[in-house]
Amino acid sequence: xxxSILGSTGSxxxxxxxxxxxxxxxxxxxxxxxxxxxxxxLLEQQARKYKPLVAVAADExxxxxxxxxxxxxxxxxxxxxxxxxxxxxIEGSDMLLSSIVGFAGLVPTMKAIEAGKDIALANKETLxxxxxLFTDAIKEHGVRLLPVDSEHSAIFQSxxxxxxxxxxxxxxxxxxxxxxxxxxxxxxxVKKEQALKHPNWSMGAKITIDSATLMNKxxxxxxxxxxxxxxxxxxxxxxxxxSIIHSMVEFCDRSIxxxxxxxxxxxxxxxxxxxxxxxxxxGQSVDFAALAKMTxxxxxxxxxxxxxxxxxxxxxxxIMPTVLNAANEVAVSKFLKDEISFLGIAExxxxxxxxxxxxSNPTLSDIIETDALVRKxxx
Length: 379
Ligand code: NDP
Ligand code: MG
Description:
Rossmann fold, 2 domains, alpha/beta, Rna Polymerase Sigma Factor, Chain: A, globular
């Protein structure tokens, strides 16, 4: 199989390359294109090791540096969104792993779909912001959409226990993040260093903050809505502190099928690469006796307002999820620069959402324009 990886220098991208290494000799995967943004040193190392046809410096300022570093190789160096689009749709590739963070992944991922590539999707923001267009394009071009987000991979695997018509509801698990059980007063002065410490997962900064605010779970509700063609209210979020059950599906006979494993993104990445087959994986098995217990709670949507806001945007539909996503990307970057408080993230997103009139059936241009407008107004 031949793949291209958007965001190969990130948390998902680097773990995907480890999966490629681990599958060698069992299922050989050639990496035809890789992309990075700020980490040109790692991108160069990856280019030397995996010998892709193309390496892309997404931030154009890294282009000259990358080109000079790879001058002695046959790797073609490209830059910017144009380069990302060419990498995503590169000839000969069977699958795109879409693992850039945020809205920046949307246009290149759409290009890959149009070029007939299967999509292994980590970049949930693209599905949140353009769910209808994205899923329509998947159908129109007859390609597969394989979830990489651990909960969605779990739902996808659990769904195989019945037919779509037999599904009663989706149980989407959440770890609760680093601030589980805290009150608003206790959260008033938390700093980014605390928010960046996730109890169970090591991930990029943006999704780690989203996990602390529960916006990540909100985005995942919308992601599940599009991936599994479900109503928002048929998706129940359950806090499960141990992150062993990655999500569950309840069928009409009230039987529940769950997918479990120790928390490692390599499981869902490997499953997306090898679906419908399963291959041996490195790592440990769950030791249930050592685990002893698993705990479950209702999420606190009054304190963690972002989850409620995301569901609201999902129920309203139209352009509102785009507004939510763009406002959240801006708010998270402001929080990471100490410009707003932790609780300020939800306040910020809510105030931006209240300023926008909804628009139904947005086109790709509407989505791109609205995303840009929200960012401009937030400056
Ligand atoms: P990281 O921040 O670790 O990596 C992001 C990748 O995208 C890097 O390769 C980065 O390049 C690149 N990048 C950053 N900004 C841009 C941009 N504007 N244009 C093009 N490329 C850019 O993020 P993660 O790997 O943690 O997350 C990636 C996606 O996967 C997100 O959508 C996240 O929600 C999703 N996801 C992640 C999980 C995880 O465990 N990490 C779990 C489930 C979903 P560079 O580093 O060189 O700057
Ligand atoms: Mg997830």
